[in-house]
Specification:
- The protein has one domain: HIT family, subunit A, CATH 3.30.428.
- With 115 residues, it is α+β, with helices and mostly antiparallel strands.
- The radius of gyration is 14 Å and the shape is globular.
- Helix content is 19%, strand content 22%.
- Strand 1 and strand 2 form a beta hairpin.
- The relative contact order is 0.22.
- It has a five-stranded antiparallel beta sheet, covered by helices on one side.
- Bound molecules: guanosine-5'-monophosphate (5GP) and zinc ion.
Length: 115
């Protein structure tokens, strides 16, 4: 997708603080961190959101979780972390390229949303 900022990040057209990359996914630190550690893991394929997952493209999501498990250790999230996936307008999704947020580095509490 030519006008997608995350596709541009994958292509190296927009700089990012890269954590990890393989043939299926790309991981990088969020530009506006909401916790001491906050990174994003995205499929290289342009999938707009969870609503666009299908039997054909959804296998990448389990791969993203395994990558998160590895990156959590590497970034020091040994005491736990939170994975967030915002979907659509009410979900607060601003970038229309599927992404998993990984947040940690402090106790995030038990409340899942903070309006
Ligand atoms: P959403 O609100 O769609 O779930 O999350 C999008 C996330 O992407 C936000 O946390 C935002 O800070 C991050 N973001 C937006 N543009 C850029 C960018 O150009 N570089 C990086 N590293 N993160 C970005
Ligand atoms: Zn994209």
């Amino acid at each position: 997708m030519s006008d997608c900022i995350f596709c541009k990040i994958i292509a190296g057209e927009i700089p990012s603080k890269k954590l990890y990359e393989d043939e299926l996914c790309y991981a990088f630190y969020d530009i506006a961190p909401q916790a001491p550690v906050h990174f994003l893991v995205i499929p290289k394929e342009h999938i707009p959101s969870t609503d666009d997952l299908t039997e054909k493209n959804a296998a990448v999501v389990s791969h993203l979780f395994l990558v998160i498990q590895k990156l959590a250790k590497e970034t020091g999230l040994t005491n736990g972390y939170r994975i967030i996936n915002n979907v659509g307008a009410d979900g607060g999704q601003t970038v229309k390229h599927f992404h998993l947020h990984v947040l940690g580095g402090e106790n995030l509490g038990e409340q899942m949303i903070n309006k």
